[in-house]
Design a protein that fits this description.
- The protein is mainly alpha-helical and 209 residues long.
- Helix content is 57%, strand content 7%.
- The strands form two sheets. A two-stranded parallel sheet has the order 1-2.
- Helix 9 packs across helix 10.
Length: 209
């Protein structure tokens, strides 16, 4: 049954999950994309089919729903590991999806700059670049205070330390907030104080890098 097939996937038997997907009745081609991804992860092969299926899924969905689709790709610099031929194929296929807009982001500024800014890169001039700068201290404090939405409060001393160490960069503020929430929930602590700071920073680096 479906439960057993899902369980086989979580046990590492990817073919079980692929078989489960093949029996799903979906109106769009996400089944095909997911199946190829799991087959690729278990048996490495040519990536061209994987790229095409994945890229054209949003276009098919946009046409079906008669809406413009926006695709967000985080940590885009990681795709550089696949090499220039992969990036060229990716751009070529992206250009064939007129009903899809792409927004990319990345945490390694140097690599992102190489991908979108160097003339030898397949994605040179493809994206409009915008660097996310630091926010003001008042906004940073408000952002950190959002941990209270899940019942976790940061003391003023902790907040001051985070502001000093992160230079109010949104990515790092959010990452610390997430680490503090994770620490608080795991340790059943509703107030994160200076004594907890070291462990929160450890989880911050572990999650982010």
């Amino acid at each position: 049954g479906a439960v057993e097939k899902l369980a086989s996937f979580f046990e590492g038997k990817r073919e079980g999950f692929a078989d489960f997907l093949n029996n799903l009745k979906l109106t769009v081609s996400i089944k095909d994309v997911a199946t190829i991804w799991f087959e690729q992860s278990s048996t490495p092969k040519d990536l061209s089919q994987l790229v095409q299926k994945t890229i054209f899924f949003p276009q098919s969905y946009a046409l079906e729903k008669k809406k413009q689709v926006v695709v967000f790709i985080d940590e885009f610099q990681d795709l550089k590991e696949f090499g220039p031929s992969f990036l060229s194929a990716l751009r070529e296929n992206m250009q064939k999806t007129p009903n899809v807009s792409y927004v990319i982001s990345g945490s390694v500024v140097g690599l992102i700059s190489q991908i979108v800014g160097e003339k030898t890169s397949p994605f040179y001039g493809f994206f409009l670049s915008k660097k996310v700068d630091a926010i003001d201290e008042k906004s940073a404090v408000k952002l950190l205070a959002r941990t209270a939405l899940v019942g976790i409060k940061l003391t003023d001393a902790v907040v001051d330390g985070v502001l000093a160490k992160t230079s109010c960069l949104p990515l790092y503020l959010q990452a610390f907030g997430a680490a503090a929430v994770e620490f608080g929930l795991l340790n059943k602590k509703r107030v994160i104080d200076s004594k907890d700071g070291g462990e929160c920073w450890r989880m911050f680096f572990e999650n982010l890098f």
